[in-house]
Amino acid sequence: MIAIVPFILAIITLFMKPDSMRSARRVALITGAILHNLGSLSLLFHGDFLSWKPYLHVDDIGLVFLLLMSFIFTMVSFYSLGYFPINRTLDKQEAGGHIYVACMLFFLSAMTLAVSTLHLGVLWIAIEGTTLASAPLIYYRQNKRSLEAAWKYLLICSVGIALALLGVFFIAAGAQEIGIDLFLPQLIEHAKELNPAILRLGFIFILVGFGTKMGLAPLHNWLPDAILSSPLESIPTTPNNFTTLSFCRKPKIETTLPP
Hints:
10 helices, globular
């Protein structure tokens, strides 16, 4: 499972000394990006030979988003090698560099999990993981503005994630009535047997909840502050974009709702 490698590297970098092991952290970041690329590319030729079915499985569409995510992460990793030494000289507020690599690798692991599952519960866990991994990046400069942005991000997105979890509970309740699990293929196959009221209610909560994490209006007011406070001025948009992609790539439950 390619999500395990960046997770292990992230844990290792957390125990590295903040100032004396910058080079080692950079090596860990690039190593994680390259190994993730190689693992993603291997799925093209060998299939998902390490999948933990049925909860974790990379389908054809998921592989497209996995390769896209891996490529963008690699480009950001290499760009950061030149960005941080220059910005550290120009901006003395760059105080959170020692957590950057760990949070980026945790985020990569969480989003790999998000695009590798068709189970709503596992998807929720992965997206919550991206929230926790992104918050320290917003507080990267460790000043008043970044602290405010980080708290705003956590509070608003936590409300959204909680609403999404409530939506998952509603759909789980409807699925339990007919004896199926939260796998989207099963939900689509048995959609006409589900309680329409419960299913629609669950979908609304999931749409609003995950939409908050995506930065959809009107629950998007955390986004400008988060972008301006983070390193590279664009890192917080990455989890939003890939959360959107990972959610939209899933089969559409609402297309088979009973009348």
